[in-house]
Specification:
It is a single chain. The chain has three helices and six strands. By secondary structure, the chain is an alpha+beta fold. It has a single domain, classed as Roll (Bacterial Protein-export protein SecB), CATH 3.10.420. The strands form two sheets. It has a four-stranded antiparallel beta sheet with strand order 1-4-3-2.
Length: 152
Amino acid sequence: MDRKEGLFNPVGFRLHQITTEQFALLPEHYDPGTEDVEMSVGLKFGMYEAERMIAVFVKVQFENQGKVYLLAELGHHYQLAPETWGSMKSEDGKLTVPKSFAAHLVVLTIGTLRGFLHAKTESTTLNVLILPTVNVTEMVTKDLELSENPRP
């Protein structure tokens, strides 16, 4: 067995890369005394056939009174083992990712984002913010049909 292929877990995937897509801290927009706080979480997926990869991008934004004070988007790039990729690939070139597997990848990505936010806000007034638990079953409601994305 090739050493690189040996890095896949028994499910047939491995975390290949973590990317910071966007990050901004604007503590001057943060008002700890207000209850007018809004948080939004966004989710995108990508697929890169040549590398047998699925990318998961999670974006979180905190704002109050219409002003963003924290924005972060991370990407997790998961490489699939050849047999796992083959089992999801259709003849028309699309990749069908089972809902439960997609949700698992999103949970891993959100956990990384939570730690990233803690590390980036440490020693700032925004360190009191903790990304709350996110109901991933509301975000991933069906199997994914992915097509090739251009690699950034």
